[in-house]
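Appendix B. Chain record.
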Amino acid sequence: MRTRPQPSAPNCSPLAAALPSGAPASRRDWLAWAGAASLAPLLPGCGGSGSSPAPLFTATMAWGRNAIRQAMQAGPNQPKTRAASVALLQGDRLVWQEAFGVLDEASGTPATTETRFNVGSVSKVIAALAVMVLVDRQLVALDAPVVRYLPGFSMLSPGYRDITVRHLLSHASGLPGTYLHNVFTFTPLQGYAAELEAALADIHLKHAPGAMAVYCNDGFTLVERVVQAVTGQSYPAFVQSALLNPLGMARSGYTLAPLPPGSFAPGHIRDVPQGQEFMMGYATGGLCTTPGDMMKLAALLLRGGELDGQRIVSKAGVREMASAQNQGVRVNLPADWHWGLGWDTTRHPGLEAAGVEAWQKSGGTMFYSSDFYVLPQAGLALLLTGSSPGFKPGPVAEGILLRALQESGQLRTLPPPLPLAPPPHATVSSAAVGALLGVYGSSRAPLKATSPDGQQIDLCAWSAQRGAWVDRCQSLRLRTDGWWWSDANPATQYRWEQADGRRYLLMRERATAGHYLVTTPAGQQMPPAPGPLPPAWTARLPSTWQVVSEGPQSIPMALDMGTSALKELPDLPGYLFWDDSQFLLPLSADRAGMAVQVPLDAGRDLVELVATTRDKQEWLHAGGWVYARKD
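Structure tokens predicted for this chain:
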């Protein structure tokens, strides 16, 4: 459930998977884990099975096999990636399909190309395609308000009436992020999408619809309700009949019932194999499939919506999915990122740096990580997936595709690594520096900018483990390129921009592949609170809360991820600080609202806190979970 390729960065939120065995994890850790399709490398495959090498792409496959096995290697305190699978398509030919590793270490049963994996948010491409089928049938209009199809849908913010179907598919709806109740389970459950729609009636928007794009799983879950409303079929049934069956994707579907043992790559918790993972948000992340099956979908997209003489979706629908959706949003940061409908990007920066158009979508769940690419002009497509949330498919997938382009004669040479040499210093006033200082909030650990001399800026990040600020990047100085560099750490640069009345901190890093830069918003400068916290909220501080609404079927609870803290940071009085990550402002004695608006990943998965009392005990409701006070 991730939005964009991630550089190899020391400042990424810590994965729950990287915690020492037995260490507790929080909602913050879980969302970083489940949302990250490619964050850390992991364990070599133990053998594998696949087709015979084709004459073409022999060097590409040799490099890819080695890179996949390297990516599966375990790092310190990281879960093992026991199985992985890849498929590469060129035009009409499936030129490479291979599996790596084992399904069961005790028996040594190898993974095969028929082994199924949950591909997480890669499912969003299917969701967008399903909507485009309905657009072709004139059952849905992209720019129509959602309430046209869901007249019972409502929220506390009146702006909900302005949410369109396009907003749902382009992460611009303003919905909170991810509804947590029973989203990842060990047994199939029904009614997740209907429960989300009902829950939204008691929640505010986090930003006006269309104001910015903030990665949002809730929007795709609401797509399920739209599909059911206009077709009379459940979302999985419609996708099966309209897409999976016509494409012959016989080993693809949603996690509605248990699969036969040995047909899927199981996840592990502390090296103990687990049962099947069920993802109840079908449109946002519930597809279970194989790389080979996904190449049938890729072939459809490469052919503009037609496969084997059968028109599945219009060419216009495929083009619309791949059109940049960032035109017209008020906060377009960074301006060079181009997301589509269902796609994380319609101009992947790593391939674009080599002069090649690429549509890309990553996906992560509690137990899997995947990356999916379609290169429409080059006629290539690829899916790489692995059975661990710490598997890092992005850099490997990029490397395979670049080498396939080179080996097929479409790329003369591989792009060289970018140099990292700080430009000369630029002049800046102490007043200008002073305006940049303060606390920057997001859905992750906040940052704090300070200056010892009115010329340089030091950044530190909040550490939940230490309960204190820790150094992030010291001695940043403004350079002639407009970015702030540190001579001691030139790999990461920072810049401040203002948009829609807010000041944002942007971060730029050289991506893992080394030949391009990735810019992401890191946080929003927090203005002073309108006043002190009201007594009702002060009486709750500091406190620790434990999730009580999840049952034994919950995967997050099996990973001890149900504890969150509520406090007030001295650096930002008047704000509530939840889960060591999010700032909220009280709306009443029993409700606190979302207080940051940051585009893309750094503003995702926010919550509204609602306190209730029952049987003389107070409860907190946040993001679909109900918490009881522990202390």
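Further analysis of this model is presented in Appendix C.
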